[in-house]
Amino acid sequence: MATSWIIDAMCLSHDGGSYSCARRSIEIVGGRIVALHEMPPRTEPGDSIIPGNGLLAIPGLVNAHTHSPDNLLRGTAPHLPLELWSLHSAAGREGRTPRECYISAALGGIEMLRTGTTALLDHVRISPDLDGLCLDAVAQAYRDLGLRAVIAPIVADRPVAQTLPLDTADLRDLDLSAYGMRSQLPAREQIEIAEAFVERWHGYQGRIQAAIGPSAPQRCSDDLLMRAGELADRKGIILHLHALETRAQQAMGQHLYGKGTLAHLDELGLLGPGTNLAHAIWIEIDDLERIARTNTAIVHNPVSNARLGSGFCPLSDYLERGIRVGLGTDSACCNDSNNLFETAKWAGLLHNLVQPHARWVGAETALRLATQGSADAIGLGPDVGDLAVGQVADITLLRLGTPAFTPLNNIVRQLVLSENGSSVAHIMVAGEIVLRDGVCTKVDEKAIWQEARDIATRHLDDGNVYADAAKLSGPIEAMYARLGRGRSATQ
Ligand SMILES: [Zn+2]
User: Fold this and answer.
1) CA–centroid distance, residue 267 to ligand 1 (Å)
2) Domain span at 33
3) N or C: which end of the chain has fewer CB within 10 A?
């Protein structure tokens, strides 16, 4: 079996307690790290070699929550809170062809590789109806780029006006029948499409995993949630869903279930080690115990939370209780990037604004969440997220002769607080070089970007869907006035 080498690079690894950095040569066989040599080794003719002098090797970053259809919508959304933002973003992703889904996923994939991310979870909404060909196109995009990906098709079956605590009097004169933000397919049919996708792609070439992604509890009937949970159990896949992102969603738990949303999910048996909750901001006080007891994972998306004004995730509470946490960018329409360096910096700093300094997160923890934490949360297992013998060779190599690392005083702080992805030189996924000198090796980046521009030009004129969706803006504004604002339930 061919051996690949990264010769004599500065290597950052985590020993379970803290990060350390040392000059090493990394030996890679069969897509895994088999040795870290202190002395430069003797290589054989035919070995693949990356000279590591002047480079920093780190475990590839793992983006635990993104939405590929929104990559074509970067920058389109005005500054609005989630519920009003959704009216705009829903319009832009309607009626895509499989090729358009491919290009949208490839756009985000290229951006992630160029900014040091080697693995991701894509919570994919295909609008207006879940579609197997579109899901296949998304998987093909990650396969072609060489990324490690978990793909969670979004399912939802409740009309949007019934997912928010709106005043029915405000809806009385509105015809909402044309509002296409929900899937029209019955729960059973959506799960069948998702299951067929799981059978086609789960475990593909060891790099692609399938998952199931209910949009959020309040957007799904209990029947659909239970079917999704049953599919996850039967196939051994992750159940990934948004939960308690906004104050309105917290109020909706009481409205729908007469109790907190997570208490309801717990009663349905849907919390557990295979479940990850994106956001989990507006939790109830007893939810901390519930999340810890069930070993449910959280995905923190600080840039999106700020962009949409959603609230402060109780990250320090989660970390102090040993709750599993990963980091995500969320959508390129509410961030507006897929750059996990940026997200790690926000995770490390944002909570300083609301916590005493003894509870601040800091650079070292933020880096751990962006690597091992995310990999664990989205079910990639303990072999992803570190540079150590036995780990998969998902490695990001950064140039040290850049502004972020000059002078080199503290690698971890400069990696999280100074670096922004622009020092990324090369990337390996499973030992394969998928980015060299800052450019993707397996796809034609420029052709994909040109096709993305052409698609965006065609779709920016799709105003009709937004005109329908916008009918809800008045009732949503009235809802905000009733609920008021605040940080989150625990602060
Ligand atoms: Zn999201």
Assistant:
1) 24
2) 3-59+393-440
3) N
Q: Are residues 247 and 185 in the same domain?
A: yes
Are 53 and 65 within one domain? no
Do 316 and 373 belong together in one domain? yes
305 CA from centroid of ligand 1 (Å): 10
User: Ligand 1 center to residue 48 CA distance, Å?
Assistant: 39
How many whole angstroms from 155 Cα to the centroid of ligand 1? 13
CA of 6 to the centre of ligand 1 (A): 36
Distance 352 CA to ligand 1 centre (A): 24
In the predicted structure, residue 290 carries a pLDDT above the cut 90: yes
Q: Which two tokens stand for residue 406?
A: 């000059």
Ligand 1 ion local residues (Cβ < 5 A): 330
Per-residue pLDDT of 437-476, as tens digits, reads 999 999 999 999 999 999 988 776 555 556 677 888 999 9
User: How crowded is residue 52: how many other Cβ atoms within 10 Å of its Cβ?
Assistant: 22
Does 117 reside within a domain? yes
Judge if 123 and 207 occupy the same domain: yes
Distance 420 CA to ligand 1 centre (A): 22
> How many A from CA of 301 to the centre of ligand 1?
8
Let me know whether 148 and 36 are in one domain: no
Distance 417 CA to ligand 1 centre (A): 24
* Residue 106 shares a structural domain with residue 17: no
Looking at the fold, whether 424 and 411 belong to one and the same domain comes out as yes
Token pair 């080690």: residue:
273
CATH number, domain of 111, equals: 3.20.20.140
**What are the two backbone dihedrals, phi and then psi, of residue 55, each rounded to the nearest 5 degrees?**
-115, 150
Concatenated DSSP letters of 236-304: T--EEEEES-SHHHHHHHHHHHSS-HHHHHHHTT--STTEEEEE--S--TTHHHHHHHHT-EEEE-HHH
Flag whether 484 is in a domain.
no
Q: How far is the CA of 326 from the centre of ligand 1 (A)?
A: 13
pTM, entire model: 0.96
> 176 pLDDT exceeds 90?
no
pLDDT of residue 464: 57
Q: What's the average model confidence in pLDDT over 51-55?
A: 97
Tell me, yes or no, whether 297 and 177 share the same domain: yes
Tally the domains of the chain.
2
